[in-house]
C-alpha cells in the first residue's frame, strides 16, 4: 500500500509517519521510485504499536528501546519482560539510580512475601509512592496493605494468566502495553467503585447497618 | 512562627511559599510588621495539603478548587466528594464535555452492576482508557472484567471503610489525596506482583503444573 493508505488505515497523520520513519521507529517501506515506497501489514502493526506506546505517554527513546527488545529478544522471556517494563513511566530521577536501598518498599514486599530486588525499577517507584503517602499524612497501614496485596495479586494473576507465551514479541507487546494501558482502566474503575460504595454507605447509612 | 520556620517545618521552599500566598492557596499570616507575619499550625497543615496535591500532579487552578471545597463544603458529603475528585487528572479535552454517551464505559458498568452516570468525570476517563485498549489490540474481555471488577471493588471497600467521616474537610482530604496518591502505589504493586507471578510461572513451568 502507499503511504496515504497507511495513514488512512492507522489514523496516524502523515507528518507523524514521516517522523517515525526518520527516528527509526517504523521500518522503511519498499522503495518503488525515488520518492515513493510501498508499505505492508508489518508497517500497519508497527504503527499501531508505536501509537499505543506513545498514547501511553512513553517518550521516543523509551519506545525505541521497547521496539529493540521486541525485534531482538535477548535472554529469557522473564528477563526481556523485565527490561521492557522498565521502560515505562514513572521515571525516577538520575540520582535515584545510585540508591540501592528502598526501606519502605522493602517492608511492604517483606510483608507480602515477595522478593525485594532493588534493581527492579518498580521497587523505586513503590518507594517514591509510599513516601508520597507519608508526606500527605495518609500512610500505608497493615490493614490496607493486607487488602491491597490480596486484590492486586488477584489482578496480576489474571494478567499473567492471559499473557500469550508462544512468541517473545507477543508476550512483550502484551506485557508492556497491558501494564501501561490497563493502569488508567484500573484507576478509573477504582474511582467509580469508590462512588458506588460511598453512595451505598453515605446515602443510606441505616440500610448499611441492617446488612 | 516566622516564615523561615514554616519553610523548615514543611520543606516547602520560601519562593514557593510566597507563590502560594500570592495565588491564594495559603492563607495570609498574622501581620506583625510591614514586612513580617506570624504563621501557625493551620499554615503548616495547609502547606502540607497543597504540597501533596501539587506532588500528585495537580495544576494550581485544580488545587484552588479543592481548597475551596475543603473550606466551604456545600451540599452532602457525597456530592462534595464527587466534586473534589472531579478535579483530579486525567483531564479530558474540552470537546469531551459535550459528549454524554460513553458506550464502552456504560457496558462495563452495566456488567459490574454499577450506576452509569455520564456526568461523573471518571466515566469519561474509563471510556478513554477502554478505547486505548482497543487501539492497542488488547481489548477488555469478560474474564478479565469479572476479575478486575471483583478485586477493584475489594480495594474500594477498604478505601471507603477507612475514610474519616467526622468532618467534611477530613473526608475530602482523605478522598482526594487517597484517590490521587494511592494510584501510583497500586500501579507499582501491580508491576511487582506481575514480576512475582511471572517468575513463579515462567521460571518453573514444571513446578507450576504439579501444583
UniProtKB/TrEMBL annotation, chains A, B:
What range(s) does the HTH merR-type domain occupy? Answer: 1-69
Q: Which SMART domains match?
A: HTH_MERR
Record keywords, A-Z: DNA-binding
Q: Which InterPro entries does the entry mention? A: DNA-bd_dom_put_sf, MerR-type_HTH_dom, MerR_fam
GO function term, MF aspect, one: DNA-binding transcription factor activity
Q: Does the keyword Magnesium apply?
A: no
Read off the Pfam families from this record. MerR_1
State the protein's name.
Putative MerR family transcriptional regulator
**Origin organism lineage:** Bacteria, Bacillati, Actinomycetota, Actinomycetes, Mycobacteriales
